[in-house]
Design brief:
- The protein is mainly beta and about 70 residues long.
- It has a single domain, classed as Nucleic acid-binding proteins (OB fold (Dihydrolipoamide Acetyltransferase, E2P)).
- About 0% of the residues lie in helices and about 50% in strands.
- Strands 1-2-3-5-4 form a five-stranded mixed β-barrel.
- A hairpin with a 5-residue loop joins strand 2 and strand 3.
- It is globular and about 50 Å long.
- The N and C termini lie far apart (about 35 Å).
Length: about 70
Amino acid sequence: MATGIIIELSVKKGYGFLKEDQTGRIIRFDIIEKEDDFQISQPIEFNIIDLEPGKLAINLRPSHPKKVLIVS
C-alpha cells in the first residue's frame, strides 16, 4: 500500500490529485469512488493501478501517522 498527500480536489468534476510519498509522482484519483470528505494536505494510503495513459489511485483511506516511542 502506498502513502501520499492530497494536493488538489475538484469535487464538481469528481476527481483529485495526490502526491505519492516514495516517488513524488502526481496521481489522479476519483472522488466518486469514496464518499469520505477528503481535504487538501490530508495524508492517505492507497493502491495504484496502471492505465493507458498514466496511473490511478484506488482504495483511498486516511493514513494515521506512526507513533514513535522515544526512550530517554
